[in-house]
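Protocol step 4 of 6: structure prediction from sequence.
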Amino acid sequence: MTTISRLHLGEVVDHATLRALGFTNEAIRHAIRSGRLHPRHRGVYAVGRAQISREGVWLAAVLACGAGALLSQAPAALHLRLLERADQRPHVSVPTQAGRKTPRGVTLHRAATLTPNDRTIHEGIPVTTVERTLIDLARTGERRALRAAVRAAERLHRTDLGALRTRAAEPRHSIGHARLYALLSEYVLASGLSDSELEARFLELCARHRLPAPERQVQIGSFRVDFLWRAERLIVETDGRATHDTEVAFLDDRVRDRALAAIGYEVMRFTWAEVTLRPGAVAGEVRAALKRRRGPVAITGS
């Protein structure tokens, strides 16, 4: 029979796994008495030592909650690296409304909407998928944390925000779906706008908020800028994702901005989401910049 000292089970193991490996109930009881197994929950043990890592605590909680259980909520976001800081206490979701005893120290969520498609394994722990974790965070978390998690999902997990927005729109009567849908709309609602359409929206914004009309598509040295207030030497660039959301464009935009600043121009950049969803805030920033730039400005080039 396999001995505890030869097991390579990581930090925690459950009773069913030990039995499948050939341990009798008496052998398990002996391992507990001898300090080779340390009970964490009913039928779940720490192997070798009582103190285990954060991830070990999470896995033990999932194992204690039975078949179909998944790490979820804030600890799932931490485990998937969607958040850097959050509540670390174990939260576990199970795909049933039926009663099952909640293990001590675990917050149990009985989620009838949990499906096999919401399940993944990350670094050995059954956990809700990135998409499901974001929906759960939207239900219970702060908007700032949710926004950070969405950015991490796109950057680290290559999450398709458009597809996720479509899923969040499903009529499940969930506050999490609704909140996530609203946030994602800021990122993807206007992503289909062409550069010319986005520029037209910005001109409409200027007219609606009574800003002085800028010149459009002006050549300054080797650069063509979207909008220019010549007297104030203020430039506005409207950034559509199709032409500005790449590493090359990111670098080129910053080189260009520094070159223009060196000859006395101020460059302001606004995304399509800002222009289409926060026009009042954009107008306020431009108005403040124009007022500031009407003071003495050093002219160092043409």
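Step 5 (inspection) to follow. DSSP finds 13 helices and twelve strands in the chain.
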